[in-house]
């Protein structure tokens, strides 16, 4: 998806009932992962084939240790 933005991800992260998200093969980056780590109920995310760095994945896992991350 070429329209995926950090601003849009911040809005998604603000959704109180968001539990899972599939953003594989999108332009998701490290900034987007930071935004998504703030989603209160997010417990599963697929970030396969994105440009998210290993460092950002580890930070996400530290912020949401119970979340399943597919990459």
Give the SSE map:
Blueprint: H1 6-13, E1 20-22, H2 30-36, E2 44-46, H3 54-63, E3 68-70
Parallel strand pairs: 1-2, 2-3
Helix pairs in contact: 1-2, 2-3
In short:
The chain has helices spanning 6-13, 30-36, 54-63; strands spanning 20-22, 44-46, 68-70.
Describe the fold and architecture:
The chain has 71 residues and is α/β, with parallel strands linked by helices. The chain has helices at 6-13, 30-36, 54-63; strands at residues 20-22, 44-46, 68-70. Strand 2, helix 3 (54-63) and strand 3 form a beta-alpha-beta unit. The model has no long low-confidence stretch (mean pLDDT 93).
Ranges where pLDDT stays below 50 over 5 or more residues in a row are none
Radius of gyration: 11 Å
- Gap between N and C termini, in Å? 17 Å
What's the shape? globular
Descriptive terms for the model:
71 residues; 3 strands
């Amino acid at each position: 998806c070429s329209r995926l933005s950090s601003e849009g991800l911040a809005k998604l992260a603000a959704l109180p009932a968001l539990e899972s998200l599939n953003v594989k093969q999108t332009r998701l980056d490290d900034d987007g992962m930071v935004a998504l780590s703030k989603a209160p109920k997010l417990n599963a995310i697929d970030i396969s084939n994105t440009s998210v760095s290993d460092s950002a994945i580890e930070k996400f896992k530290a912020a949401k240790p119970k979340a399943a991350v597919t990459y």
